[in-house]
Amino acid sequence: MRKILQGREREETIRFIAFRSHWGFEASFCTPARGNEKGGVEGEVGYFRRNHLVPLPRAKDWADLNEQLLAGCRDDERRLIGERKQSVGEGMAIEREYLLPLLEERFELAEMSFPTVDSKGCVRVRTNWYSTPLRAGAHPQVKILPAYIEVWSERRLVARHERCYGSGRQVLNLEHYLGVLERKPGALAGSTPLKQWREQGRWPSSFDTLWQSLQQRLGKQEGTREMIELLLLGRERGYDPLEKAVAQALEFGCTDAAAVRYLMQAPGLTHPKVESIEIGPLTRYEQPMPVMISYDQLLSSGANQEVMR
Q1: Residue 295 belongs to some domain of the structure
Q2: Residue 161 and residue 181 in one domain
């Protein structure tokens, strides 16, 4: 409600008027601080809370919690209230016959806004700023949901953040700045998006190990640029496969970006099966596989100094 007036009168928001008009019902409001006017609703809410929310349910995400709440509602359909002979579900089935059919077109519950993307690639939503991959000056459509903020441009979802209920906060996604950081790799180490990824657990320690090794071999700028290119590959193919490929490369003792790229692409590669043949006396010409680690050591700064001496 936009404003609570005297008694049952209210000043409704435009969005609420659109909501009740879409579904075809009239709004009826209670007097403030008079819960007895809707005692049945208050009592049922209390019953559900005591029986399904105490103790606090454990859920891995919102979808899991909603499934638990729906299961609680299904259980309540078998419940008898007082001395009634009909269960809650049976009474609901009778009542459903008098209800209007649901409309095929759903009503978008999200609050809409059309902010301007600022010079930092962010849009201001309520009292916070959220990053986008859009250019400065663009006017995307922002949907404000209870748990998320969605940014849409040209009918495409370009950014989705968990909604922040603080004030004056910046909610930044490192993905949205990879293009800029590729041109200015020195800004990655102290960037706020990277800090937030670390806090969210999206930057595993294996990434730091690989990044540090790339810097030692290729130099700070070029090594960071290689790391950013791998992050771009992760944005395209998924960060879980990237994390797995980095860990696998480190396990092999290899800290090369090309090796990580290959390990990410290897599961999708198909090679024709070659049948083994007997080579007989040619086995005497077999040689052990070469060890290439020495060549990597030549690229390190310490080895270069030894060569110069």
Answers
A1: no
A2: no
